[in-house]
Design goal:
Blueprint (H helix, E strand, L loop, with lengths): L6 H9 L11 H7 L6 E5 L5 H8 L3 E6 L2 H11 L3 H4 L2 E5 L12 E7 L5 H13 L1 E12 L20 H4 L8 E14 L5 E13 L6
Parallel strand pairs: 1-2, 1-4, 2-3, 4-5
Antiparallel strand pairs: 5-7, 6-7
């Protein structure tokens, strides 16, 4: 395990700038959950809280988890300006490499751009899948492996990148229906100001209502 996957490294990264992320919800979260009825959501690796706040505005109760205390403090401070939504969010400080969320407890479990070594990633996704209620949704979004050659500056560490099919490998077909499994392209402005087409790994799965966990 390298130092980039620990709390201290991420605390330092957040302290180094006023904001690390855009402040906007992740686009695939918006695309894939806008039509879902609000319930209880788990936002894993919530960072500065944009996804959690977007969900809370739409009526979701959100457990927002990160292993950076600095990120959580920043997220809570930002959300506090929207009191009606902020009361729906519980900010939780956990080491996501070790923490096990309560089984069968969430209508939506969202993992956005969690790039871990494959062994740790598979273990995390197994725990996240177990946290989804019967009838609930698991949403996993990440940078697709093709981004390594897209012109976008990504860490040249292939083991950190994965396809939707790889993310779904641990889902028992008897318990899960795969609704979306694709590499979804979008155009962005690259680090040098040029237009670049990148791809997001998008996996959305629904746990069968009769799944007993």
């Amino acid at each position: 395990m390298t130092t980039q996957f620990n709390e201290a490294t991420w605390d330092d990264r957040y302290r180094a700038s006023a904001h690390v992320w855009s402040g906007n919800p992740n686009p695939q979260l918006v695309s894939e959950t806008s039509e879902l009825a609000p319930g209880h959501a788990l936002d894993v690796g919530c960072g500065e809280g944009a996804d959690a706040l977007w969900l809370a505005r739409r009526g979701w109760r959100v457990t927002a988890v990160d292993f950076s205390a600095v990120a959580l403090e920043r997220a809570a401070a930002h959300a506090a300006s929207e009191a009606e939504s902020a009361v729906r969010i519980h900010w939780a400080h956990h080491n996501i490499l070790e923490w096990t969320p309560p089984a069968g407890s969430f209508d939506l479990v969202s993992s956005q751009f969690m790039h871990l070594p494959s062994r740790e990633r598979r273990a995390l996704f197994h725990r996240l899948a177990a946290a989804v209620l019967p009838g609930g949704t698991l949403l996993i979004v990440a940078h697709h492996p093709s981004d390594l050659v897209s012109g976008m500056k990504r860490p040249q560490l292939p083991d950190l990148f994965f396809t939707a099919e790889e993310a779904a490998e641990g889902l028992d077909p008897a318990e899960w229906e795969i609704l979306v499994s694709e590499a979804r392209t979008r155009d962005i402005t690259g680090p040098d100001g040029d237009q670049i087409t990148i791809a997001d790994t998008v996996l959305r799965a629904r746990r069968h209502v009769d799944a007993d966990g």
